[in-house]
Structures are given as C-alpha cells and as structure tokens.
C-alpha cells in the first residue's frame, strides 16, 4: 500500500468488511459519527457485527440503522439510553451487551491501540462490573442467559483495582473534519470524543473526512491522530444525506418565554 490512502467511495472503503467482523466506531451520541461509512455498511447487508462504540446511535440514525436491521449481534458500550430498539433487542435476548464504565472503555481502546494488553483501574470495584453477574444476554423468557464474569482484583497502595483488557478490532470506522492523503486526521471540538481511540484500536481503520488536503498542508501540531493508525481515507460528498450532522436533543427557548 502506498502513502496515498484515499479510496474513491465509502462503498469501496468498506467492501471487504465481512459478516462476523468486529468494529470500533467513533463518535459520541450523534456527534462525530461516521454516518457515510455506516450507511455504506448497512447497504452492503453485512451481518453478525460485534461493535465497540460509546453508544449505538438512535433508532433511525447512525449505528441504530444496523441495529434495526438486525445486523449487530454484540455491543460493547458505556451508554445506550437513547435507543428504544436497543432496549427491546437486549431485553428479548436478541442482542448481547457488555456495559463498560465510560473512562474504562476509552482506556481499553487506547490500550489496545498502543499494544498494552491489560491495565488496572479502580473504576467498578465493589460493583457487578468487578464482581460479575451483569446480564450480557437475556433468554427469551427474560432470565439471564449469559452474565459477566468476575474480574481479577489487586491491591495497590491499599486500594482495590480491577484488571481490564485492551480492545482491538478487525476494523474501525471514524469521522474527521480534515484528513490528508497520508491518513493524518484533525477532529473538530467534541467530535474528537472516541474517534482517535476507536481509530487506534482497529487493525484496519477507515476514516471519512469532510475536507481532504494534500500532504504537508497540515501543521504537525494540528494533527490529532497520525496517519500510522489509518489505512483508508474517503472524502464525504457534499450534500450526502448520510453525512448529515444531526442534533440528538434540540433544546430551544420558547418564543415569548422568560
């Protein structure tokens, strides 16, 4: 593979993602999600995906599209409260869910991306996160079919810590504001949440970018994620509805209100 990592379309960028693949997907809520790549994957009909992402979109957008189509078999997330279909599939036993404290999830992705196999953290000690028993999958009758195992615990300085494992995935899908042909990426404001970490965790990382620039145009101090972590770059087409930036919860002042 040459230094020019650009591909012609989102469809081409995800063409080799197979059924059963594991995916790390960037973004937070609906902010900074790789909507074009998700839509291309949805149109391909890829099934049995094991996804690691902070959340699973909403019912009709982002990862919620794959979920509604029954394409996701397992989610590793920290927050899932905005998706009713997610709750339905989880409680009916159609979807396996590993809930992870948000900071722990971020560090597991970062650790996997930097080659750290495991680390200790105090987050979750004294709870089912550490002691085990969190429902990962329900049976059709509502009983717990698969529960989380207990985690190894060690004391450091008189305080208990849990052993957490780094996460690596087959592929990663991320969205950046600016990218160059070498895969160096710049994220905008809160869209940076989880995107660099997801990109680091993927063995093959695909980035959709709003603006594609030539190598050398980015000041090295501006780069949030170096191109060594990115294998493919695709420019988002202007006006592509899949790339729309949605507001998850629109809050406005009522006209005439105090």
From TrEMBL:
Keywords: Transferase. The keyword Transferase applies. GO terms for molecular function: transferase activity. Pfam families: CoA_trans. Belongs to the 3-oxoacid CoA-transferase subunit A family. PANTHER family: ACETATE COA-TRANSFERASE SUBUNIT ALPHA, KETOACID-COENZYME A TRANSFERASE. This is CoA transferase subunit A.
């Amino acid at each position: 593979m040459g230094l020019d990592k650009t591909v012609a379309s989102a469809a081409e960028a995800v063409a080799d993602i197979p059924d059963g693949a594991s995916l790390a997907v960037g973004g937070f809520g609906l902010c900074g999600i790789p909507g074009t790549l998700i839509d291309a994957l949805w149109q391909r009909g890829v099934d049995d995906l094991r996804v690691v992402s902070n959340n699973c979109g909403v019912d009709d957008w982002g990862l919620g599209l794959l979920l509604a189509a029954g394409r996701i078999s397992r989610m590793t997330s920290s927050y899932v409260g905005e998706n009713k279909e997610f709750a339905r599939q989880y409680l009916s036993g159609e979807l396996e869910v590993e809930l992870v404290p948000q900071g722990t999830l971020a560090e597991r992705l970062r650790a996997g991306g930097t080659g750290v196999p495991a680390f200790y953290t105090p987050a979750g000690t004294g709870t089912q996160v550490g002691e085990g028993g969190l429902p990962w999958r329900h049976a059709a009758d509502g009983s717990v079919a698969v529960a989380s195992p207990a985690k190894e615990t060690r004391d450091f300085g008189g305080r208990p810590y849990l052993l957490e494992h780094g996460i690596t995935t087959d592929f990663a899908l991320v969205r950046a504001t600016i990218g160059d042909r070498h895969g160096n990426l710049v994220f905008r404001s809160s869209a940076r949440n989880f995107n660099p970490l997801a990109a680091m965790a993927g063995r093959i990382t695909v980035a959709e970018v709003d603006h594609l620039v030539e190598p050398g145009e980015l000041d090295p101090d501006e780069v949030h994620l170096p191109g060594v972590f990115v294998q493919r770059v695709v420019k988002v087409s202007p006006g592509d509805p899949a790339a729309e930036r949605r507001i998850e919860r629109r809050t406005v002042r009522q006209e005439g209100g105090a």
